[in-house]
Amino acid sequence: MTSRISATVEDRVKEKLDNLTHVNNSALINDLLEAYLFGGDDPMSMTTEQAALKHEKKKLQHELEEEKETLERKQNRLQEVLDDLKELEEKGRPEDLVESFETLNRVNGSLDVSNPAVQTHAGKRGMDPEKFLGEFREWREEEGHADHPSTRLKSTTVQETTADD
């Protein structure tokens, strides 16, 4: 709680205070009175400049504490985001994508980007068929389906043929 008081100061003191543009006059006067009334530095032996610098020191210490709290909040939030990302990565692929992979794994014949099933499943997910097949291959290897006899993946590399072939 704060209260307002009025005080009269000599012109030279007011002039000196006016030249200290980085100082909040009310806070400085409060600090001086607090020191005088409750101990600590003797305000009567301090110059105006010393009092202003002590006030500035107190203000900077307070700001530093606030910045430390802000930094700590940001570090905590960053850790939460990192934990969330890790959790998402551990969950793996979305369930509907895995369902598409399981469906394709039951398809007889070769799979390549021209296969209608590949195009349909890739399109449903807004993926390029080439990228979709790449992820499908990774999934098959991870799940141990790489040598499943019902499905063979064609290489998506196009080979040029010449008239002599």
Report on this model:
It is a single chain. By secondary structure, the chain is mainly alpha-helical. It has 2 domains: 11-89, no CATH class; 95-153, no CATH class. The protein contains 6 helices and 2 strands, in the order ααααβααβ. The protein has helices spanning 11-19, 25-38, 48-91, 95-105, 116-124, 129-143, and strands spanning 109-111, 151-153. The chain has a two-stranded parallel ribbon with strand order 1-2. It is rod-shaped, with a radius of gyration of 37 Å.
Helix content: 55-70%
Strand order of the largest sheet: 1-2
Shape: rod-shaped
Report the sheet with the most strands, covering strand number, pairing sense and barrel closure.
Answer: 2 strands, parallel
Could you tell me the strand content as a percent range?
A: under 5%
Look at the structure and give the mean pLDDT.
Answer: 77
| Helix/sheet category | mainly alpha
Measured between the Cα atoms of the first and last residue, the distance is 95 Å
The domain count comes to 2
CA gyration radius, whole angstroms: 37 Å
Q: Count every beta strand, where a strand is a DSSP E run of 2 or more residues.
A: 2
Q: Give me the strand/helix succession.
A: HHHHEHHE
